[in-house]
Every structure is written in structure tokens, then in C-alpha cells.
Specification:
single chain; 370 residues; elongated
Length: 370
Amino acid sequence: MSQVHADRRGRLRDRCAAAGSAAALVSRPANVRYLTGASPPGAVLLLGGGADEDVLLCPRPPTGDPVEGRVDEALRLTVLPPSGGDPAVTAADLARRADADVLAVEERHLSVARYRAIGSAAPRLRLEDLGTSVEQERLVKDDEEITCLRIAAEITDQALSELLESILVGRTERHLALELERRLVDHGADGPAFPTSVATGPHSGRGRHRPSDRRVEEGDFLSVCLGANYRGYRCEIGRTFVIGTTPADWQIELYDLVFTAQRAAREALVPGTAYRDVDRAARQLLDSAGYGDGLAPSLGHGVGLEIEEDPQLSPSAMGKLDACVPVTVEPGVHLPGRGGVRIDDTLVVRQEADGGPELLTITTKELLAL
């Protein structure tokens, strides 16, 4: 992967040079990992800091732990002494000493205090905004990245399928969430991609519900949302089931509606389709059925080194899908006091000639009675 990371840094360096910046400071952890292979806590990357070298500055030595990743061996690594201060400030001083006159920084990631400290360390260095340059590079995934996402999805499916084979009645949402996260690690995940959500009865159908001590009861809807983190890449799956009995008519009707909306959005995942049109494919079905007021602001989002990254599939989103962009499609309806349905998949946008969108999360979407 060393050459892959070097090529990524080279593209960013070229982009910065075209914008008039001789050097760039990358501080957002996911962006640091994308460009170097690892994101040790507190590390920053200085691009074009002199002598045609890029430098990763860390407050402590990298551990090589899979959660952090492994640093590109071709990259210059500088570990600061215990009293070395902020690596971002040290990086700005390095850029100054290398006679850089402009330093591009990730303004959206820096606190005001940190931004001022960087400026104070190199007062003659003009700070420019790097904007979302790295995030735009991260949008389209290469084969290695998609392989990591595919493995993360396999791990997630395994953990969920094992839970469905166990006895659920009487167990709490919190207990089930902890068990799912343990199973993710047992199957090879570095950890959960995000806090696992388990929602039962009147809680079901809520997005990102925080598990409580409510116990699973007969006749409940059970909504589960989880994902694995594998080598830094994160996926997401959400399913809804009925507990211990034949589903009621209202449960079947609501489930079929959400399933139909989710299928419509999945089928819209074609390169060149506007982000907002993917959202509209599901939203108009749910809205016409009378559930528009309770819908989430966004139908889905990109995934990768972060569980929620660009693109956003929302009514106001600007832009169009590219091939090899992984996204979630996650419509849901929650009826206060009764519960609801969420169905969530991770897919990779593909050309129609390549078979259309690739479904990574394959656990059945049939309404099962557990």
C-alpha cells in the first residue's frame, strides 16, 4: 500500500500547488489515515514541508495496532518528545523553516485556539483553507478499500445472523447491543463502526436509538443497527424483526412500505444520478403514505474511513453519484407509542453494465418472526 498512499499524497500536493500552496497541514484523523495508512492519536501530516519530503508528526510512537493502522514505511516519521507540544504547531514551524510562504490547513477541523497557535508559531506564513480537498479524494474508493468494506459487511452479517438464532424475549436492549459488539470483534472486526443501536417495542424504528434497559416482549418490533470497523473501514446494516408471534396487520403494512421505499432508492443508485434524486425515490413513497413529517433529514450517506462521510443523500444535496462510491440507504418510519421500521444497507455504486449497485450487507430483508 506504500505506493497507493504516496500517490494519494502526490495528488493532494498537486492540487495544493495549483491553488498556490506550497505546503499543507492535514489534521483530521480519517484524512491522515487515508494519506499515510495510519492515524496515531494526535498525529498530523505535513505535505511539502521542505526537501521534497512529507512528514508525519506524532506526540508518541505509533503502536501498529490495527485500530490505528500501519504507517507507510516510505514516509518520514517524527515522534515529538514528551514536552514537544502540539504537533500541528511544530509542523507549521517546519514549513516556515523550509521557506514556505503559504500553508493550507483544514480550517473546519481546527479549533480557534489551535488555528491561532499555528499562526503564532509562523507569523509570516499565510494560512489558507484546504477545504474538503482530501474528502473529495476519498469519495471514490479503490479496489483495496472496497475489499475492506466487503469484509466489514461480512463480519457484520455474521454477528447479526448469530443473534437471530438466540433467545431474545426478556433480554434488554443494552444487553443485546453489547452482545452484538462482542460478536463483531469475535469475527475479526477491530471494533464497532459506531455505537450499536437496539430498539424494541415503542422505541423501534428510531434512528440511532440509544439502547435502554427495556426488555424484549412478545409482539414487539425489534430494530437493530450495527456495523464493523475493519482496518479503518466501516459499514452499516439495519434490520427490523417481529418478536415471537405472527406480525400484526399494521406491522406487515408498515414493513412492506419501508421495504418498497428502500428498494426504490437502491435501484436509483446509478452513476450520474443526483444525490437528491436517490433520496426522492424513497421519500416520495413514504410521504405519499402520510409519513413525510417524521422522516429523517437524509436517506443515507457515504461510508469509508468514517461511518458518515460524503456524499449525503438528502433533498438539498448537490452533486451526482460516481461509480465505486459506497453509500447507505436507510429509510425508516417511527410511530410514536407504537414503534416502527428501519431497513439499512451498505452498497457500492456500480455501472449498469457491471450489474448495478453491489449489495454488501446481505442479511435477509424478509420480515421474520423471531
